[in-house]
Structures are given as C-alpha cells and as structure tokens.
Fold this protein.
Amino acid sequence: MTRLAGKVAIVTGGASGMGRATVMRFLADGAKVVVADLNEANGAETVSVAKANGHGDSIAFVRCDVAKESDVAALVAEAEKRFGRLDIAYLNAGVGGAFGPIAETSVEDWDYTFAVLTRSVFLGMKHASQAMKKHGPDGVMRGGVILVTASIAGMVGGAGSHAYSAAKAAVISLIENVAAELGGDRIRVVGIAPGVISTPLVHRGRPDKYEKQFGHQPWPDRGEPECIADVAAFLCSDDARFITGETIKVDGGLLAQGIALWGTGKDNTFMKSAGVNRGTTGEAMVVRNLRDKS
C-alpha cells in the first residue's frame, strides 16, 4: 500500500515495540520517517531493519528526550530539514512510570511519569502543529495529523497504576481539546488507547511472565505491536479524514467487558511493590518490595 506516499512523519518512542512496528508500517505505506527515541542502541537497530527492507533513504534517527522542549523542537526541525516538511506526528513515547500505593509514591517518580507521558504530548503538539500550519508552494495550508498513544488505563480504573492512569487520562483530554483548537487549520488530533500489547514495556523481555494478562480479554489472540501499527496507519491516512478528537480503543474487547487487569485490593500487583518503570529508555527500573503493613 502507498496511502502515506509523500508524507513525512515523526514517531517518538519509535525504536521498539508499538513505535517500531508503526515506523515499519509507515515506511511500507510510502512515508518518510524520523524515528525519535532516548535509546540509541534500539534506534540504530530500527534503522538497520528499515535499511534491510529497502527503506534506507526514507528513515532517520534522532536521539530525543521527549520531556525536554529543546529536544522536541530540534526533532521537528530535523524532520523539516531532512525531508522538507512535516505531515504526521505520532507521539508514542512512554514508560510504565511510578507504581505502588499512593503513600509510597515519591514526588520525583510522579513528576517523571507526567513528564514522559503528558508533558511530552503537550510539547509534541505544540511544535508539530507549528510545522503543520505552514503553507505549501501553492499557498494552501498543509495541515496534518497528530496521533497520540493514550491507554485504556486513562479511561477506567483498574487498568494501571494511579500515576500512569492519571497521566493517560490527561492525554485523552488533551487530544479532545487540541483537536477542537486545530481543526480550522486542517490538523487532525487523534489517539489510540491500547489494551495489553506484547511489547518490551509490558513484558520486559519475558512475554511468558505476562501471559495471564492477555487471557483477560475476550478476543482470543494476543495483542501485538502490529495491531497498533495498522490502526495508526489508518488514522494518519486520508481514509480517516473526518475523524478528529477521538481516541480509539485497540484492546481486544478488554474494556468492553470491564476489567481488574492487575488484581483487586491487596492482591493488586501495583500494591505489592513501589518504584518507577522507565520502559525501554535504557535507564534502570527501580523496585522496592513492600512489607505487609496490615
């Protein structure tokens, strides 16, 4: 398919998991892609995979801390410099963030979670929208698509830690509000809310350990990164030209049936330990086991 032919995209968190799968799908659909990630080793591997599939001239990697405005501004500028424009910004970068009982959550871990999951989306929207508002040679405003990875955890309790869930709920609200603001500029703002997807962020190299979570959903097949990539490609194409301000659940029916994905009460996984999950950034995860205080 070439439904993204001529489009230029940036994908944050594009070096692994859902981000990498979407990078490959965008390239296959004809787009040029700038991959942004904090993990340079994963970034180099992603570029290598793309080159092996004949997309060497259509991909670039930029090391980017999505929580820093200077890095995000530089990312957008690099896309324009290298490929001449920006049509799609997939703001996908994420971490598991702070977890554990609220009394055990440090301010630093809370702020880190919101910086990576929420402030990054604000920064991406801010700078990508400015690039998309530029006019083409014919004087017509180009417009574009800002796609965001939200989560079903931002839609209901019981699908994630309190910090992660609150950060993703803020993202969903941001999608709606910014979509209303940018509609007149022909910039669509849309979101994807994944359920349990088999990515390094979820299984941390041990997919078998998290097999139980996949069994909670009605749909019998496990969620794979390509499931997200397929929806991302649709939402960023002209086939979705009248969709904006919407966050699409891609969860195998998990939210439709109601969930307590990580257990309930004291049996909730997030109540047994505390710390912060820094995802695939290459930075170490911190876990503190908690004693039963009952």
